[in-house]
Each structure stands twice: as C-alpha cells, then as structure tokens.
Amino acid sequence: MAAPHYVAGIDFNPAVRQDAFDVMARLLEHYRNKSTDRAPEQWREPVGNYRDQDLWRQEIQAVFKKVPLPLALSCELPGPGTYKAIDVAGTPVVITRDPGGAVRAMINVCRHRGG
Question: How many Å apart are CA 59 and CA 52, to the nearest integer?
Fold first, then answer.
C-alpha cells in the first residue's frame, strides 16, 4: 500500500514540510509493522523543574491563558439550567447550559469586582 498524498493546510517552509513527510512515513511504517518508536534511554526530568515558581508562572501565562481549554464534558451539563463552576489557572469560571440547550461560559465574578 502506498502512502497517501499529503496536502498541507498551511504552506510550511521546506524543512518543516519535509519533517512532516518524514513523521507520516514513520507512522505508516509503525502501523504496518505493528511497532512503535522507542527512545534510546529513559528521560529524567529534573525535580527542580516541577518546583520552580517562575517556570510555573511562565507556563500558566504561555499555555493556560493563551489557548482554548476543554473545561467540561457535555455530560456534565446534561440539561437546561445545569452549571459547573471551576477555577482555571486562578480564574473562576462558570459554565452553564441555557434554556435553548446552548453552552455558555464566563468569568465567575460580579460586575463591580469584574471591573
């Protein structure tokens, strides 16, 4: 079986494009051979990286406050009027299902405190 023709959704530079082709080819070979990639050795993350407060703040800002996050499963809001209140990286959030069944999310603060 030949590898499928790859059509990029984004026009990558040639090096990135070639890397994408190489990854796809490797994945196809693993699928055919029922195998997987193996690292040459075990990775050991320094414990200090888990305890570094500056690194933690940087990760919160770079990841959790910059990209959309999945905050609830649809089954957690089974019907109109249901809600879920959670804290997301220090920000209180409330998620509701309105009378029409649509899901809404907002920062969970009153107007005068939110201003």
Answer: 11
Q: Each residue of 70-85: pLDDT tens digit?
A: 999 999 999 999 999 9
Closest to 62 measured CA to CA, from 93, 92, 89: 89
Neighbours of 86 (CB within 10 A): 14
Which pLDDT score is estimated for 7? 63
For 89, the token pair is 């990286």
Contacts of residue 24, Cβ cutoff 8 Å, sequence gap at least 6: 3, 6
The partner residues of 95 in beta bridges, in order of sequence, read 84, 105
Any residues with CB less than 8 A from the CB of 94 and at least 6 apart, and which? 83, 84, 85, 105, 106, 108
Tally of CB atoms within 10 A around 109: 13
Beta strands in the chain (DSSP E): 83-88, 91-97, 103-107
